[in-house]
Amino acid sequence: MEHRACYVPGMTKAGTSVAADPSPPAVRSPGRRGVEFSLLTVAVLLPVYGYCAVGLARHGTVPPGAAGYGAGLAVLALLAHLAVRLRAPYADPLLLPIAVLLNGLGLVLIYRLDLETPHDRAAPAQLVWSALGVALFITVVLVLRDHRMLQRCTYVSMAAALVLLALPILFPAVNGARIWIRVAGFSIQPGEFAKVLLALFFAGYLAGNRHALTYTGRRLWGLKRFELPTGRVLGPIVAIWVLSVGVLVLERDLGTSLLFFGLFVVLLYVATGRTGWIAVGLLLAVAGAVAVGRLEPHVHSRVEDWLHPFASVEAGRGPGQLAQSLFAFAAGGALGTGLGLGHSVLIGFAVKSDFILATVGEELGLAGLTALFLLYGLLVERGYRTGLALRDPFGRLLATGLASIVALQVFVIAGGVTGLIPLTGMAMPFLAQGGSSVITNWVIVALLIRMSDSARGQDIRGRAAVRRARAGTAGRASEAGKAGRASKAGKAGRPYGVGS
Amino acid sequence: MTTYIRRAAALCALLFVALLVNAARVQIYQAPAHDANPANRRPTIARWAQPRGDILVAGRPVTGSRDTGEQLRYERTYRNGPLYAPVTGFASQMYGSTLLEDAEDRVLAGTEPALSLMPVWNDMARSRTPGGRVVTTVDPAAQLAAYTGLGSRRGAVAALDPATGRVLALVSTPSYDPGELSGNDRSATAAWKRLSGAASRPMLNRAIRRTYPPGSTFKVVTAAAALDAGVVRNVDAPTRSPDPYTLPGTSTALANEVEGCADASLRYAFEWSCNTVFAKLGVDVGAGRMRETARGLGFNDAGLRIPFPVAPSGFGAADAPMDRAQLALSSIGQFDTRATPLQMAMVTAAVANGGSVRAPYLVERTTSASGATVSVTVPRAPHPAMNPATAARLRELMTGVVEHGTGAKAAVKGATVGGKTGTAQHGVGNSGTPYAWFISWARAEGAPAPAVAVAVVVEDADADRGDISGGGDAAPIARAVMEAVLRG
């Protein structure tokens, strides 16, 4: 049984309600949309409160835009909620509120940092990007009727991802990294979109080939657990390794390459259960990282910074970014200085993007930071739970992959700015300034919502069908008819290739 | 596959736990070290995040704060900066702080725990106490009189209330505007370079931080020692001193600038400043008693604070024995004898106060921003430095100096004034331009005790050597200060 105890109350309710009211498949109580709505209210009110707190701390008054800001966020949340209510009625009720809350908090933090840089405001643009992200979320939820359609574009996704990854090489480097392309004044990070596409490709490829990967291999030292894959199936993993190292060297983007590689290793393990793959993966990753860390000056300096964050202070050149970031976290202590009262802006460049977590640490303290990490943890957990609840291998791998993207991204950047691992440029999901990242994360949440709807819907519909069959109603026929229409619509060439 | 997804989820959970543990490490365990790192700018930002408390002279603030809107938000401003610079010092965002700004920094910056009613609560709520106020003892009229009196000349004035030790005026010229150093922009850097590099050393507080040879003004100390020791019993009796006086153990002859010093009485010698008489008196009193009297008046005290530290004045090296020739020269304020203007004001204040020294102090009290008293300076118990009879004798002698001696220019209408002039040689072979000294006290007619004691020194590098004298250059400044105090 893969359907967890957690869903049982909902299912019981669904069962009773459907049994009591046999007309259309009931959508209200089984989907827990009411819970989602209540949580969304909290998720909108919390950022509005934060927005007011910043204004009160800085100027002693509630900022004049508070009502408009709250209304804007509420409208976005409401539209997303309606889309979910309409097309994904059984979806997990936690996913959307967490996304709205994180995005709202991100806007508050960026607005707060804008006060320190009046000539360089980022919050309005971020609000526009967030609106675009929510629009894309709604589109995905409305248009994509079944996530299994995406399995058909496995190789299209790969090609698109490669193109997106290669694009920035043609553009000039910005701050030492070639990860941006500039079009008409907008900076876009194609690598962000490539994350989702690669997750799609990995999930599709592994779902198709996992048996071949699982049941071929050579034993290492005669141990059953450490079977090495044969050369024929080793091809893709080597290709991906080359790709991530290529990204690292050509674009100097350590974070993204780490993310790709971590994602692939996790999905490979989940698909095959072969620890041998993990061993090979880790070996290759370590070899690649050490080689690049030694040879590539940009990456090398990051490692040196991580080992000795205060070297520049001792050399009399003043604190570097990482040192300033650590100062900010330390200044926050347990409870923080309060929103608007910290000095994380001392970090300077990238304080609104890569280092946004330092503002959380300083102004909300360890308490706020812990709450934030738990929010991310909850988001990831809901993703994994969706993966567990699904029955098709592609869906399970995709949900696991998307959840892992969020988890790895949080770990890489949060660990970087707190000095746990070498710092690599990466956006804190939903929180950091950066349009591409926000849009990508909304797409991730949209896909998770779609899949969790299938996962929970399949159960509820199944149970309902069984009950109806037992009760001798005609429910089964109507259910079957609906499914048939849906699959036909999919075959008719609906544009389900999201983002490609 | 389920098991593997669970394991992957467990790995992610592990990553989140690592993040949380590391965050706690940075924010709790390492936080004190990071907060104390000198490269961390937060303490500086917090220091200038609110207006600094004000320094008050006669109830009116002589300082202020300006909101710059920059990262270091409030900048110090000064009203009459050059006039009060020897009192306030500066509070710079780049170059630290000096004098009262430094000594009372905790009150002015609001970090003094006594400023707040609930320090523990404020600590928890991270709220800041507004900067408190420092109420000084300075008399603005006396300060202004001294400052305008010195004018463009180099010099210093210190004025005290003899009965309490309150500092009434503390002036040093050339002065500077401390407001120029407040900010952290290029103009502050330029001002710092200009002021710290100037040959006239405008940032040196000559009234307390520079020691001069006191010259003939030190004869007050020698006379006090001689009277206390009984070397001289009658100020009108001849002192059996030769003119010129050969320094004991040498063949060097000490001469006078004036006539009639041979066997002169103490009164004559004091009024006309006979070097020979006082050199011999010092030798007759002996090094031990001379040192004792000088120490009683405040010499050789490295611990004097008003509340900022005052450079120690010296009579003879602290432990090295003096030979008699050195003692003779030291007794007329030459050789190794050094005194700050404040020290000489203390000497004359002791004479005016019946022989007792009152420790000088510049801060009347400190208050919170709302005016609640935080601390009050309680005058320390008077410290007897000479017999009251000796002090009375000296007052008589000093009055004579002003009435018909070298200090006639210090006379104030409607008041009894006592003074002593001094012209101090210095430099290698006494080649430097002499310093003109004048120390005095004044008692308004009908008042029971003198209300002011002043010491004035004029370095006066530009005047002709022959014209420089305590009576000519310094006495009019002292008179202006005394008039200002008596009038107020």
User: What is the CATH architecture term of the domain at 209-363 and 380-487 in chain B?
Assistant: 3-Layer(aba) Sandwich
Largest sheet of chain A at a glance? 2 strands, antiparallel
How many strand elements of chain A? Answer: 4
Quickly count the domains of chain A.
Answer: 1
User: Termini separation of chain B (Å)?
Assistant: 96 Å
Shape of chain A: globular
Oligomeric grouping of the chains: heterodimer
The largest chain-to-chain contact, stated as pair and per-chain residue counts, equals:
A-B, 51 and 38 residues
Largest sheet of chain B: 5 strands, mixed
Question: Class by helix and strand content of chain A?
Answer: mainly alpha
Strand composition percent of chain B? 15-25%
Q: What's the helix-strand series of chain A?
A: HHHHHHHEEHEEHHHHHHHHHH
Report the sheet-strand fraction of chain A: under 5%
Overall average residue pLDDT of chain B: 88
Provide structural commentary.
Chain A is an all-alpha fold. The two termini of chain A are 36 Å apart. In chain A, strand 3 (218-220) and strand 4 form a beta hairpin. Chain A has one domain (5-491). Chain A is built from 18 helices and four strands. Helices cover 38% and strands 16% of the residues of chain B. Chain B is elongated and about 120 Å long. Chain B has a domain at 209-363 and 380-487: 3-Layer(aba) Sandwich (Beta-lactamase), CATH 3.40.710.10. Chain B is α+β, with helices and mostly antiparallel strands and 488 residues long. The chains are: A mainly alpha (500), B alpha+beta (488). Chain A binds chain B through residues 2, 266, 269-271, 273, 310, 313, 318-319, 323, 326-327, 329-334, 337-338, 341, 343, 346, 361, 365-366, 369-370, 373, 376-377, 380-381, 384, 387-388, 393, 396, 400, 403-404, 407-408, 410-411, 414-415, 418-420, and chain B through 1-9, 11-13, 15-16, 18-20, 22-24, 26-28, 30-35, 37-42, 45, 71, 126.
